[in-house]
Design a protein that fits this description.
Elements (H helix, E strand, L loop, with lengths): L6 H10 L6 E3 L2 E3 L6 E6 L4 E7 L3 H17 L7 H17 L1 H12 L3 H21 L6 E3 L5 E9 L2 E5 L5 H14 L3 E5 L6 H13 L6 E3 L4 H10 L5 E5 L2 H13 L4 E5 L5 E4 L6 H13 L11 E5 H16 L19 H17 L2 E4 L14 E4 L16 E7 L2 H9 L3 E2 L2 E4 L3 H10 L5 E3 L14 E2 L8 H7 L1 E9 L3
Helix pairs in contact: 2-8, 3-5, 3-7, 4-5, 4-7, 5-6, 10-11
């Protein structure tokens, strides 16, 4: 079925789908060295989709050896940038051809609505095309010197890059890590989340078909504490790129220090504030955007607008509008193109979110919507809204990673800024106002890697994505991510008169 559009079309496509479940090492699909496997579960049904190869340290060691040999051969690392570009553009075209299949894999694997998965796949394709087109347009430098010298600053690939990606945007986050690393000439080993490995393995098939040489792109499914740890400790890995929790990010930095001081780029957790000032225009539109900012992708979003700060003079009326918007965003079958929300990724995350909701009630926040799991198969939680939240409450401080909105009130701009910055995280922030002076003041004072003004989650491939504080130190997207996957080399030449 080439162009599924209806709910029934996607259901039929899912019923017919066969999955690649083996690791991809040195251009071949192979079982894990141990023969171990793990289940990947459909969150909408709670049933097993497939058993996937569970890689560990021996598989990591093998893949690193092949990646290093491929890098040393120069078949990819020293290939002219224009030729690397052509191969990556072929890969992007293959992804476009198979976009429905790739979207289906992410929806089946982690429970997100199919319409959302289709958008993610288009974003992933755009990411590969952007970095492919960039690599033959970025230049080195010639430093200013006297007549007796010539100084060059060259940008060269790092070597072997290990990318560890999360489950919430499986293919898109993979593209954000893999595309710039490959474009820069590195060999890349990808460890997808054990909760969503299927699209990564399909991408490996397409990469092989596109002509990426053996050992240059490999995929090791498995767990963080096994194969992920082995990659982080490997003396043969030159760079580790990670998106996930702050706790795991800290552990990976320790592993880098214990091994070879590999570069570590982290994009970690968030508890992002979304500020609504009384002077903003069109409260209905802002309220819908505020609801989408937290309920999109079931709230399983690192930049989810989970803290909604509303000026008290409009708070009561605005909260009612948010509740009305939330009512239209109820979860449904992820294979239904009309569903706004899908299922929580697994039972562990499902129960974790419900525990946070229970804590919110116990702490005295006012539960205004949701709060209880939906009955039936799968792990579904409706949009949940708490009002009257204070900064001391657990639901107001900790990243929940679910469809739970915490609403705070404020009276002054200073109070709003202080409350917004009162967090261990600094991944994203947003605010709504029509006052240009306020926009300039608040933008500068919000301590965050990204600030959205009169929108939420705006941006494209041209701008970097990343945070400050305990939200990490790396940047995905834009030319800046290419910088992270390359090394500067200074060349100083003496010129004889």
């Amino acid at each position: 079925m080439s162009h599924p559009q209806r709910h029934a079309d996607w259901q039929q496509m899912a019923a017919d789908r066969q999955f690649e479940t083996r690791a991809f090492i040195n251009d071949a699909f192979v079982e894990a060295a141990s023969g171990d496997t793990f289940e990947t579960i459909n969150p909408a049904t709670g049933k097993c989709l497939a058993r996937v190869a569970s890689c560990d340290a021996p598989d990591a060691e093998l893949a690193v050896g092949h990646a290093r040999a491929a890098f040393a051969s120069g078949e990819w690392s020293r290939l002219a940038p224009g030729r690397r570009k052509k191969i990556l553009l072929v890969l992007a075209d293959l992804m476009e051809t198979h976009r429905h299949e790739l979207a289906l894999l992410d929806t089946l694997d982690m429970g997100k609505p199919i319409a959302s998965s289709l958008g993610d796949v288009q974003g992933a394709i755009g990411c590969f095309r952007y970095h492919a087109e960039s690599i033959d347009k970025l230049f080195g430098e010639v430093a200013p010197t006297g007549d007796d010298s010539l100084a060059l600053v060259l940008r060269e690939p790092l070597g072997v890059v290990a990318s560890i990606v999360p489950w919430n945007f499986p293919l898109m986050m993979t593209a954000w890590k893999v595309a710039p690393a490959l474009a820069a000439g590195n060999s890349v080993i990808l460890k997808p989340s054990e909760k969503s490995p299927l699209s990564a393995l399909r991408l490996a098939e397409l990469a092989r078909k596109a002509g990426i040489p053996s050992g240059v792109f490999q995929v090791l499914p498995g767990f963080g504490h096994t194969v992920g740890k082995a990659l982080a400790l490997s003396m043969g890995v030159d760079c580790l790129s990670f998106t996930g929790s702050t706790q795991v990010g800290k552990q990976l930095m320790q592993y880098a220090g214990q091994s070879n001081l590999k570069k570590v780029y982290l994009e970690c957790g968030g508890k992002s504030p979304n500020l609504v000032f009384a002077d903003c225009k069109d409260l209905d539109k802002v309220a819908r955007n505020a609801a989408e900012a937290i309920f999109h992708n079931q709230g399983e979003v690192c930049i989810a607008g989970s803290r909604l700060l509303v000026e008290n003079s409009i708070r009561e009326a605005f909260v009612e509008k948010v509740l009305a918007a939330a009512e239209t965003m109820q979860p449904g079958d992820p294979l239904d193109p009309e569903s706004f929300m899908g299922a929580m990724v697994d039972e562990t995350q499902y129960r974790r979110v419900l525990d946070f909701i229970r804590q919110g009630v116990e702490e005295g926040a006012s539960l205004r919507a949701g709060g209880e799991a939906l009955k039936g198969d799968g792990w579904f939680i409706p949009p949940t809204v708490f009002d009257g939240v204070t900064p001391q409450m657990v639901i107001g401080r900790e990243e929940i990673f679910g469809p739970v909105l915490a609403i705070f009130g404020f009276d002054t701009e200073e109070e709003a800024i202080a409350m917004a910055n009162d967090s261990d995280y600094g991944l994203a922030a947003g605010f709504w106002s029509q006052d240009i002076d306020r926009i300039m003041r608040v933008t500068r004072r919000l301590h965050s890697g990204q600030v959205f003004v009169n929108n939420w989650a705006g941006g494209d491939q041209t701008v970097p994505f990343g945070g400050v504080k305990q939200s990490g130190n790396g940047r995905d997207k834009s030319h800046h991510s290419l910088e992270e996957y390359s090394e500067l080399k200074t060349v100083w030449m003496s010129l004889t008169p």
